[in-house]
Amino acid sequence: MKITICGSMQFAEQMLKIKNELQKLEFEVITPLTTDECAKRPNDNLNEDYEFCIANNVTKDHFDKIENSDAILVVNYPKNNISGYIGGATLQEMSIAYHFNKKIFVLHDLPSENEIRYAFEIKIMRPIILNGNIKNIKNHL
Questions:
Q1: What's the CATH code of the domain at 56?
Q2: Per-residue pLDDT tens for 37-72?
Q3: Average pLDDT value over all residues in the chain
Q4: Do residues 134 and 25 make contact, with C-beta atoms less than 8 angstroms apart?
Q5: 3-state SS, one letter per residue, for the chain
Q6: Max CA separation in the chain (angstroms)
Q7: Cα atoms in the Cβ-side hemisphere of radius 13 Å centred on 84
Q8: Whole-angstrom Cα distance, residue 66 to residue 69?
Q9: Structurally, how many domains does the chain consist of?
Q10: What percent of the chain clears pLDDT 90, i.e. is strictly above it?
Q11: Which domain, by its residues, includes 28?
């Protein structure tokens, strides 16, 4: 099974750790284009650099990865005082996965509708909440 990791690039270091854990579970794992670089340079905010994102077609690249996967795993740690943060770009990635009938796994519980206006739209996609344990993915295959 091929899983594409999605989430805020502020979680790049955690994404790489999760990638390794998933590979140990014998999954093929794809990460966002800038994950390694963002993990090495966490203060550079590469994914907030407009020129960089346009030049590297970051959004389209990740959408293509999602389309060619079996599932996505949304890495959603606390950020901006929101537990289980899911930002706008990740919402788009989830929507692409939903459109292509991919399984949508979310690492931690979803933010509330009081924290993020579009939490309702996320709930409609019926993601599978892993409660912090990526091994739970195997229970849903």
A1: 3.40.50
A2: 888 876 666 556 778 778 888 889 999 999 999 999
A3: 92
A4: yes
A5: CEEEEEECHHHHHHHHHHHHHHHHCCCEEECCCCHHHHHHCCCCCHHHCHHHHHHHCHHHHHHHHHHCCCEEEEECCCECCECCCCCHHHHHHHHHHHHCCCEEEECCCCCCCCCCCCHHHHHHCCCEECCCCHHHHHHHC
A6: 41
A7: 20
A8: 5
A9: 1
A10: 76
A11: 2-140
Query: Angle at the Cα of 80 (from 77 to 84), degrees rounded to 5?
Result: 30
Using the structure block, give the residue that is written with the tokens 């509708």: 113
Contact between 29 and 22 (Cβ < 8 Å): yes
Residue 111 tokens, joined: 């933010």
Looking up tokens 């550079």 gives 44
